[in-house]
């Protein structure tokens, strides 16, 4: 079953920062922990549309998407099978998100 997530509609028009200390409501860490990781665990496939925001910083994308590998127990191989990322407005968002996934390694907490 496919679940669709729109960053702009389901999270924030102005996502900001890497960690909760940067923005306790709309950081990459919050998006990963409260939206993205739970949806990836619940659904077979998840599509994330990054269009419609006022801009996304690379640090947000790195924490949200790379953090799936670093902290949430997903491998890049799993994510390539489960996750679709859409970014028609700015292809660098797509590239940054996948680069974060593909270059991250799990860390022990």
Report on this model:
It is a single chain. The chain is an alpha/beta fold and 109 residues long. Helices cover 48% and strands 13% of the residues. It contains 5 helices and 3 strands. The protein has a 3-stranded parallel beta sheet. α2 packs across α3 and α3 (58-70) packs parallel to α5 (91-103). The radius of gyration is 12 Å and the shape is globular. The chain starts with a strand and ends in a 6-residue tail after the last helix.
Shape summary: globular
| Helicity range | 40-55%
- Report how far the terminal alpha carbons are from each other: 31 Å
Main β sheet profile: 3 strands, parallel
Structural class: alpha/beta
- Strand segment count: 3
Radius of gyration: 12 Å
Q: Helical stretch count?
A: 5
Percentage beta strand: 5-15%
Mean pLDDT: 97
The largest beta-sheet arranges its strands as 1-2-3
Low-confidence stretches: none
What order do the SSEs take from the amino end to the carboxyl end, as H and E?
Answer: EHHEHHEH
């Amino acid at each position: 079953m496919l679940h669709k997530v729109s960053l702009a509609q389901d999270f924030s028009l102005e996502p900001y920062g890497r960690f909760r200390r940067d923005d306790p409501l709309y950081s990459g860490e919050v998006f990963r922990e409260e939206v993205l990781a739970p949806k990836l665990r619940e659904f077979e496939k998840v599509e994330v549309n990054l269009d419609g925001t006022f801009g996304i910083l690379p640090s947000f994308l790195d924490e949200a998407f790379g953090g799936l590998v670093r902290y949430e127990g997903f491998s890049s191989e799993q994510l390539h099978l489960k996750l679709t990322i859409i970014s028609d407005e700015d292809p660098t968002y797509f590239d940054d998100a996948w680069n974060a996934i593909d270059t991250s390694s799990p860390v022990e907490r």
